[in-house]
Write a structure and sequence with these properties.
alpha+beta, 5-stranded mixed β-sheet, two-stranded antiparallel sheet
């Protein structure tokens, strides 16, 4: 049976049951309290229907009672059907929207009007889910297209180098091998970055207590040769900042931010500041660097996959364009936020906020 039919039968059954209970209470009152004032007045009012020897009158009363209960049943069925239909009309809207979404159209919204009741809350929640799902699907499609393009580039370069070497018998083999190795390394780095991005999205990792200040020091020590190569000074400071999460992912987060700050910096005399702290129930990791001035509109796009700031062209230090995107996904997987802001004197400031371990209040 449909929900509407069940509600209709429930309404009608309740109405008939209420009538039967009232009639039974009256009969019990007449039987056990025959001399009560209300019973005596009722008897005289209906011609002594319950007096001895009045069997015909009693049968007439019984017939009237049966007709009354039958009317209650019919009235309850019709009224219950109408009322159930009106009450379940919002549910029909939600069902139609669900069918439309199941066919692949995620742009449809219920946008239910009326009072803020349970159905309205359900419709609003469903619209919010569709909005997030539509944005997620669009992001995945855009990411898949960009990933295909980025992976095709090193493969196309490799194919071109091989074709040239095949046609030219005097090709410098050593130079060709070096070039192929460089292209292959870039393809491997891109594949590993894609896998890291996928792992961050899955959020399936074991959580443990991690101190971001220690991870920042380890990342700075690991990237020290790269910083010296670029003539960049790395300054790490701050207080202990413990959070719950994956040590491997948070290490990758910090390394990506620090690597990005070193590579995209003022050539020869740049500086990177890494600072960790705890504020109330939040731990903060801030990475700043010197560099060219950045427009706010450009900064907002840097966390998008394969975005490389002022240019998308490949270079030895350009990376694969997934460093900040991976950092953002790792932050979100740890229920945190990552924000980017241009520094007034040039460069970028990246701030990561994560829930503190224990969430104890501390100012």
């Amino acid at each position: 049976m449909s929900v509407r039919l069940k509600l209709t039968l429930s309404y009608a059954g309740f109405l008939v049951l209420a009538g039967a209970v009232l009639l039974a209470l009256w009969l019990l009152l007449v039987h056990y309290f025959p001399h009560a004032v209300i019973v005596r007045d009722a008897r005289s009012g209906i011609g002594g229907a319950f007096a001895p020897g009045r069997s015909y009158t009693q049968r007439a009363f019984g017939e009237i009672a049966a007709v009354t209960l039958g009317f209650c049943l019919i009235f309850g069925l019709i009224g219950g059907w109408i009322l159930a239909g009106r009450m379940l009309a919002p549910l029909s809207q939600i069902t139609d929207a669900t069918r439309i979404a199941a066919r692949g159209s995620l742009s449809h919204r219920i946008a239910m009007d009326g009072a803020k009741d349970e159905f309205r809350e359900l419709a609003d929640s469903f619209d919010t889910m569709l909005e997030r799902l539509e944005a997620h699907v669009a992001e995945q499609r855009r990411f898949a297209a960009n990933a295909s393009h980025e992976l095709r580039t090193p493969l196309a370069i490799t194919q071109t180098l091989l074709d040239v070497a095949r046609k030219d018998s005097h090709t410098d083999t050593a130079a060709l091998v070096d070039r192929l190795q460089s292209v292959n390394t870039r393809a491997i780095n891109l594949t590993e970055a894609l896998l890291a991005l996928s792992r961050a999205d899955q959020r399936s990792f074991t959580r443990e207590v991690v101190d971001l200040s220690l991870i920042a020091e380890e990342a700075a020590e690991t990237l020290l040769p790269l910083a010296e190569k670029h003539g960049t000074h790395v300054d790490v400071s701050g207080d202990p900042a413990t959070t719950l999460g994956s040590r491997a992912l948070l290490t990758q987060l910090t390394t990506n931010l620090l690597h990005n700050a070193i590579v995209h910096n003022t050539s020869g005399h740049g500086t990177v500041w890494v600072h960790s702290m705890r504020y109330s129930a939040t731990v903060i990791l801030r990475v700043e660097n010197t560099g060219p001035p950045l427009a706010p509109g450009l900064v907002a796009t840097l966390v998008e996959p394969f975005q490389r700031g002022t240019q998308r062209a490949h270079s030895d230090q350009a990376g694969v364009g997934l460093g900040l995107a991976i950092a953002k996904r790792i932050t979100e997987a740890h229920e945190g936020t990552l924000t980017l802001a241009p520094r007034p004197g040039g460069g970028l400031c990246v701030t990561v906020r994560l829930p503190a371990a224990g969430r104890t209040a501390q100012m």
